[in-house]
Write a structure and sequence with these properties.
alpha+beta; four-stranded antiparallel β-sheet; 2 helices; 8 strands; disordered N terminus; membrane; transport; Emp24-like; ER-Golgi transport; GOLD_dom_sf
């Protein structure tokens, strides 16, 4: 019986799968998972812009519904990224949605990772088996990869912001140089004309 339980655990453990979806203006995207009591569902996500030249950090909403689809278990409002984990209290179809209902940004997209359906042994929740250790290590590696992906997007956003600021400073400096040059030429012309008139008198 224990061997059969171990095999079932190994078969039910799924690998992390990364997804990317576009959120329409004032729209939402929903997904679902069929879970059993005791399963664990983890979702990590981040909102971004598909335009590589954009320097704006976009935000959105995240909702996690229970099996009946009416009660909200977890919620994140107006965030750029998030991570949520829930232990399923009962069997059913659990759904999670990404919302863009308060914005008309058309290029907003969501990159999210579902940490699969992790089968939990209710009789031995702190299992110290090799299979459990491998799954924990795999989950930790995936979390590091997701964090690196988030850092890459943040670096791109901040770099675009810095380059935009540098451009503004450059053009403002050129404008100031032009104003100083024109002012100097005007003063030279005015003083020259003033002394020419004085000498004629």
């Amino acid at each position: 019986m224990i061997a059969l339980q171990f095999v079932v655990t190994a078969l039910l453990a799924l690998t992390v799968s990364a997804h990317n979806v576009v959120l329409p203006p004032y729209g939402r995207r929903c997904f679902f998972e069929d879970l059993n009591k005791g399963d664990e569902l983890s979702v990590s996500f981040q909102f971004g812009d598909r335009n590589p030249q954009s320097s704006t950090q976009l935000t959105g909403d995240f909702l996690l519904y229970d099996a009946n689809g009416r009660d909200v278990l977890k919620t994140h409002r107006d965030v750029s990224y998030g991570d949520e984990t829930v232990n399923v209290p009962s069997k059913g179809r659990y759904s999670y949605c990404f919302l863009n209902e308060n914005s008309n940004v058309m290029t907003k997209d969501v990159t999210f990772n579902v940490h699969g359906v992790v089968w939990v042994d209710l009789d031995d929740p702190k299992s110290d088996t090799l299979d459990s250790a491998v799954r924990k290590l795999s989950k930790s590696i995936k979390e590091v990869e997701e964090e690196q992906s988030y850092i890459v997007i943040r670096e791109r956003t901040h770099r675009n912001t810095a380059e935009s600021t540098n451009d503004r400073v450059k053009w403002w400096s050129i404008f100031q140089l032009g104003v100083v040059t024109i002012n100097s030429l005007f003063q030279i012309y005015y003083l020259k004309r003033f002394f020419e008139v004085t000498s004629m008198v």
